[in-house]
Specification:
With about 190 residues, the chain is an alpha+beta fold. It folds into two domains: about 1-35, no CATH class; about 40-180, 3-Layer(aba) Sandwich (Rossmann fold). It has helices at about 15-25, 70-75, 75-95, 120-130, 165-170, and strands at about 5-10, 30-35, 50-55, 105-110, 130-135, 145, 150, 150-155, 160-165, 175-180. β7 (about 150) and β8 form a beta hairpin. α3 crosses α4. It is globular. It comes from Adineta steineri. Belongs to the class I-like SAM-binding methyltransferase superfamily. RsmB/NOP family. Keywords: Methyltransferase, RNA-binding, S-adenosyl-L-methionine, Transferase.
Length: about 190
């Protein structure tokens, strides 16, 4: 953005929001508003954005190589809490986007998780419940997202998503999807665009 326009950075954790403020000062950014709101209700306070990046809170299964404690510190209930919150945050991010933006209407969803429940399943939920479609990320490397996993079929364009694995890409494990909002309707009856 080259310090133009308005950038809104939000974190529900007050200490992390303070760190965002420190980083904006360190980087000399003068176009940034930092908020400390629950992402599940963000669109109740602000909206009309051209673009949104959702760096969703997750289980952290993509960083096990750096933090082996992740393996023993998470259980099924933790994973369920994560994907429930991720769905709510992603739908709220979609609701905060202006679908008529001439330069945007895009939402990027990312996690540092390799679990399908936190990634493809969350994106499929958004496709089923909001008027959005998957578009190419523009990332030239990474593994395609799953269109089918253990008998569960996902949208065929899930292949546009990108998965990254430590053993293949020499990075932390993570997932990236890009969505385009095309209407304010609250559902997509087909589930497939």
């Amino acid at each position: 953005m080259r310090n133009s326009g308005i950038l809104v950075a939000n974190d529900a954790n007050k200490d992390r929001a303070k760190a965002i403020i420190a980083n904006t000062h360190r980087l000399g950014l003068t176009n940034t508003i930092v908020t400390n709101l629950d992402g599940r209700q963000f669109s109740e306070h602000m909206g009309g954005f051209d673009r949104c990046l959702v760096d969703a809170p997750c289980s952290g299964t993509g960083v096990i190589a750096k933090d082996p404690a992740v393996k023993s510190s998470k259980d099924d209930k933790d994973i369920q809490r994560c994907f429930t919150a991720q769905r709510q945050i992603l739908l709220n991010a979609i609701d905060s986007i202006n679908e008529n933006s001439t330069t945007g209407g895009y939402i990027v969803y990312s996690t540092c998780s390799i679990l399908v429940e936190e990634n493809e399943a969350v994106i499929q939920y958004a496709l089923n419940n909001r008027s959005v479609k998957l578009v190419e990320t523009g990332l030239e490397f990474g593994v395609e997202g799953f269109t089918n996993f253990k008998g569960t079929a996902f949208h065929p364009l899930m292949k546009y998503c990108r998965r990254y694995y430590p053993h293949l890409h020499n990075l932390d494990g993570f997932f990236v999807a890009k969505l385009k909002k095309y209407s304010t309707k609250q559902g997509n009856k087909k589930g497939f665009i």
